[in-house]
Request: fold
Amino acid sequence: MVTEQPHGTGHRTSPVIPALDVFDPAPVAVAVFRGPDHVLAYTNAVYRKLFGDRPLGVPAREVMADLERQEAFTLLDEVYRTGQPAQIGPDRPVRIEDAQGEVRDRWFSLSLSRAAPEGRAGTPDEVGVLLVAMEVTGEVTAKERARMLSEKRLRVLHRYQSLVTAGAQKVWVTDRDGGLVEGSPGWERVTGMPWDRLCGRGWLDAAHPEDRPALAEAWDRAVQEVPQLFQHRFRLRHRDGCYRHCELRAVPIRENGRVVEWVGACADIEDQWVADRRKELLARASAAVTESAHADRAFAAVGRVIVPELADACGVYLFPESEPGAEREAGIIHRISSTIRHGLPAAVAPLRPERVAPGSAFDQVIHERRPIHRRIRPGPVPPEKVPPGVAPWAELAEVHDVVMFPVTIAGSVHAVVAVYACRERESFGRGELGLVRAVLDQSLPVFSNTLELRHTQRIALALQRSLLTDPPLVDGLEIVARYLPSSMADEVGGDWYDSFVLPDGATTLIIGDVAGHDLTAAVAMSKMRNMLRSLVVDRQEPPGDILRRLDVSTQILGTEEGTATCVYARIEGSAGGPWQLHFSVAGHLPPLLVTAEGEARFLDAAQDIMLGGLAPDQERASSIEPLPPRSIVLLYTDGLVERPDEDIDVGLERLRRQAAGLATKPLDDFCRALVAGPSADSSDDIAVIAARIPGHEGQEPEGSATVG
Reply:
């Protein structure tokens, strides 16, 4: 029976078989084709949504002309003819236009079966094919993405394996906890360690023992904190037993936000490390010696650069003369510096002159002017293999390598630098010795300058001492003079004192100071001293007039001589007294008068500006001060009272109190006590000259003079 079907969810022709309504709510696409031409007779809503609203009553080849897979029509023919159902899997996509007009690839699982009218065989036009289509695009594309991702990861793995096999770097993979789970031929080849020793945490054993704790600590922290990139430098032990600097770089690999492994590469950076180290050491050496104005300190500064970076200890030996021929013939050299790393025994002998044994390694360095390398076996150290005076310490420190370098300037050996390797330190290699040589060469210009300065200052000191003559012997007067050079051993100042008896019977006390600490200051001081002597002996004038004449002479000398100060005093009086001090002060510290009763005061009268600063037509002041019996007149230079961290008035008051307390001491003890404290830490020369006035009748001491 044929009935009319109102419009509903199914889309069909008229007449229609009511049994097909069962497919209207189906969640899959359903279509029915009738007859040998496969005329489209029915589609449900899902079908129309997937494939569009296809017109009914039209053969399949026309209504589905856009279908690329034409074998589907052959399959319709076969199912219609044989009645055997068929399946088409989603082996490849179907490019179709959907209900929205979008053409794209989609995947379907198709099922075809023969359909006939209910209850009878049906005519050829009534027999058809039922098509059920299920879209599986989502599942297929997901699998395809997974497959492509898997292939991509496989390619990455192949690349990684190629890098591991062919690359020079040492590459490995650890688990999330940092234990090695995948090594590389490069890593095993370089370290010489088999896989069973490298796996887990065994790879850490390839690091230098000194670097291993820091590497393990840094790696453990990285595993816990998971940085984006882990970097660490350490020394890696190679198959031949040597160590080379390398840089380890590792990155965490995450899946679903969790770290699953670490991939790392270890690159050799020895050449870069050596270049950086050389640059840094040479910069340090240059800065250290540049800041040291004295030869001893410059060499000691280089020792602190070498130790402990390049050696365990460093000793410096310096010839006592800038032209060391005479001392070298005598076999004497001065050990001026000893730098020893922490943990080794201190030097067993103080810094001192040492005698060089003929034929020893040290003697060979001096005469052949080349480095000498000696290896020392355990046990007693042969003295001829090490620098003089070092053998006892070398045995205690377990020295096994010593290298002695000559420091040659203008063809002469001026110094010898010895470096030592002790205990666990490896024997010196070419790299370390090359760096020591480079550090010494870098410092050579400064050494040359300081040694030249040392020679110049020695000449200046000799000149200065030659001018500091003994005070005269004067009946009734005690005169004591002392001169102490600066504690900065190589510095020479322009301090001077003088004392002599004038034709008129007066005794002079003179003290002066020319600014500077070099040969120029010493020469200027010599000129001033000699000019003042000439003026004093030639002129019977007040001290102020004498110094005014010296002003003119100073200006003639020229401003390059520097500033100068002076006190010129005459002790005047007969053998029985009274006595007086006739004096003038040119920019210098005032004389100090100390009475026998312990009263001390500065003589501030006759104070004027320094020499060379007064106009020729101006007068200089003179003053006369009575001198009580047994009193002391003290003239001194500023090294006795000046300190860098205090006002000059503080130092003057300290001197006044100390001198008052020493009033009854013998004059030699008086002067010695005054200079003892300041001489220990003063950076300036100290010169003093003092005179003690005779006492009353019967108390006069014999005339005496002391210089120190």
